[in-house]
Amino acid sequence: MWLNIFFLFALIISPSFSYSELEKCDFAESIEVIGCVSPVLDIVTRLDDIGNMTRARAFRINEECKNTSRCLSAIKCTSDQKLDKTMDVLCDAFSYFSTDFFECQKNITRQNPPCIRKIGSQSQHMLSMQTEPEKFCKFTIKASKCFKEEITDICGEQYWTPINTYFSKLSKLGNLPCKLNSV
Question: Between these two residues, 177 and 158, which has the higher pLDDT value?
Fold first, then answer.
């Protein structure tokens, strides 16, 4: 289930930097960006079931994530867009979900709460909303409230607080028309 939450983070990131700004990268910078992102994307795309994540695998992914962030920060056209900072937040979120949140995740998986289950089933619909900022914001805020309610009910407020911090940081870094720090 926490894959649903992590997916929401990734979804929030997509509109958080301007593609038109990234298009200003010259050819060499574009090759560097691909080189930076490829290792972590390769690992993440091969994840079949995050619920069966081992600590060793999570550590490897987190290390690649941090390497990607450092690599991106050295490229002017991506650091201007705060893509390295965005990657830092994603790395921190992934680390949290694969360590401290893990016990809560077991309880969420066992209970399979309806709101989180519904959000996960709407992932394809969520992607189409990215081009419609008002719908995207409405859905994202609704999903965030759902996550907050079900996570705090099942596991306690202490498990929601870091997630809310990640939402807030991503909201501030991105060019989102909605702010998630009030969820």
Answer: 158
